[in-house]
Write a structure and sequence with these properties.
Elements: E1 2-5, H1 7-23, H2 27-40, H3 42-45, E2 51-52, E3 55-59, E4 65-73, E5 76-84, H4 89-103
Parallel strand pairs: 1-5
Antiparallel strand pairs: 2-3, 3-4, 4-5
Length: 104
């Protein structure tokens, strides 16, 4: 299985790192390590998660974030976004719709 993380998801992870690092030094690193661990779990569990807005959604175990991904083919999992669930649900819906339209 191949795991591909799109630039939009990496941007989301960077923004989350910055937010948590501002809260407490070192917390940003813990955030990123936790989220990358959740993403790595897709190598085993991709496809078992609920579908939301046309994407599979994996909820992070330690932070209020969701990992939105698709299975491109039988060997490739593509992580599209990693979004903070404390945001306005309408903004999450809008961003995912725009991503789905832009990238197919």
């Amino acid at each position: 299985m191949i795991l591909k993380i799109l630039p939009s998801a990496l941007d989301d992870l960077r923004d989350g790192w910055q937010f948590y690092e501002e809260q407490s030094e070192g917390l940003g690193d813990y955030f990123q390590n936790s989220l990358f661990s959740d993403i790595d779990s897709l190598l085993l569990y991709a496809g078992i998660h609920r579908t939301v807005f046309g994407f599979h959604r994996l909820l992070s175990h330690r932070f209020p974030y969701a990992i939105y991904y698709r299975i491109a083919d039988s060997q490739t999992v593509v992580v599209w976004r990693v979004l903070d669930l404390r945001r306005d649900p309408e903004s999450i819906t809008t961003e995912l719709r725009e991503d789905r339209t832009r990238r197919g």
